[in-house]
Design a protein that fits this description.
The protein is 74% helix and 0% strand. By secondary structure, the chain is mostly helical. It has one domain. α5 crosses α10, α5 runs antiparallel to α11 and α14 runs antiparallel to α15.
């Protein structure tokens, strides 16, 4: 008898999804799962801001709490970022106590010398001399947005993001933007010239094991840089509080930021720390010392020029950009490395520009005076 062949079962039909779509979907899904707690915290914070903003005595401290951590977390890349990455072998609590002591000394001197003002009179210099007696929701939401941008590793000018929502005129914003742009150009040019002329000399310094002198120098210079930055940018945090703090108010202000610093050092910096880590030769204590020294000199100069608040983030981004380009030109690197350098520079500029656009939008949405000035400018 002839054998009867069994019919083969047809293979099950499996719907085929585009590979790119599946990969993107999985990445988004994993991100949401990983960041779920943080997103819950952001949602809770926005709800809390919506509840308390009509009550000025409570809102000012809630706004300060959000601003205090978000400003230091985002701006940590420019002050303690190189300090953290070049001292990975040191215990986090020694770094915290060192920088924390400088913070306490800096704010105490301003508080004592300027009759309770912890901002070295930066706020009073641009018309922010009145105590905040009422708030709108977006003023409390601004530092929460800053926390979100920090989580996405976007360096933002806290001067624009936080001070602009309290700005009383478009002229004040223009003054801050102008000074910040000049700071970017000055930092870029200074770093470019220094690293173009001296990159080979600097490379000779960072060969072999670092001498103990460099470690001491890096801690001292980083401490001076931290002090200079605090004198510039504490205005971004203190804008939520009374212009003259009493003893108990000062203790809460200083204690909260001191403990927040400890948390940040424990975490070895926030997510935004990668802006430092991706740059060339920053882990060596000698290279980090040179970066901090150049940056501290530039910041100190602009602090002494006038009391107009400025974006120190723009200054630092300009410094890193000039440094990277100068090193590449001096080394005669390949086109691939040049392309990578320009990509890093462009990405940093886009990031700080995003922060500027968001802060200006918030300032315009909040302040009717600015709205009227803009309408008069465009339609008259």
């Amino acid at each position: 008898m002839a054998k009867v062949k069994k019919a083969k079962k047809p293979a099950p039909v499996v719907p085929i999804k585009p590979y790119k779509f599946r990969r993107r979907y999985n990445a988004v899904d994993l991100f949401i799962e990983k960041e779920k707690k943080f997103l819950y915290f952001i949602a809770f914070s926005l709800i809390l801001a919506g509840i308390v903003y009509p009550y000025a005595s409570i809102a000012m401290w809630i706004g300060f709490a959000f601003a205090g951590y978000s400003a230091i977390a985002n701006d940590s890349i420019q002050t303690i970022g190189t300090f953290i990455v070049s001292n990975e072998d040191k215990k986090w609590y020694w770094q915290w106590l060192f920088m924390g002591a400088i913070f306490l000394g800096t704010v105490f001197y301003s508080w004592y010398a300027f009759n309770g003002d912890v901002t070295y009179q930066r706020l009073a210099s641009k018309g922010f001399d009145q105590n905040p007696d009422n708030f709108v929701f977006l003023q409390l939401a601004a530092p929460i947005v800053l926390l979100l941008l920090t989580r996405f590793r976007i360096p933002v000018s806290t001067t624009f993001m936080l001070l602009s929502v309290f700005t009383v005129s478009s002229g004040a914003i223009i003054s801050m933007v102008s000074k910040s742009l000049i700071g970017y150009v000055a930092a870029f040019a200074a770093a470019f010239i220094i690293y173009l002329a001296l990159s080979k000399v600097i490379k000779n310094f960072i060969k072999g094991e670092a001498h103990a002198f460099w470690i001491w120098a890096q801690w001292i210079i980083s401490g001076f840089l931290w002090h200079t930055w605090l004198a510039q940018d504490l205005a971004n945090v203190a804008v939520y509080l009374p212009r003259q703090l009493g003893v108990m108010e000062f203790a809460v202000f200083a204690g909260f930021i001191f403990l927040g610093l400890g948390f940040m050092f424990y975490r070895r910096g926030e997510k935004i720390q990668h802006i430092i880590n991706e740059k060339s030769e920053v882990r060596d204590v000698r290279s980090a010392t040179i970066i901090d020294l150049v940056y501290a000199i530039i910041l100190y100069y602009f602090k002494e020029v006038n009391n107009i608040p400025m974006s120190t983030t723009w200054v630092f981004v300009g410094l890193l950009a000039g440094r990277e380009l100068g090193m590449r030109l001096r080394a005669h690197d390949s086109p691939v490395k040049f392309a990578k350098t320009f990509n890093l520079i462009g990405k940093d500029i886009v990031s700080v520009t995003i922060g500027l656009i968001i802060s200006v939008i918030l300032a315009v949405a909040i302040n009717p005076v600015i709205q009227e000035e803009l309408l008069a400018f465009f339609f008259e």
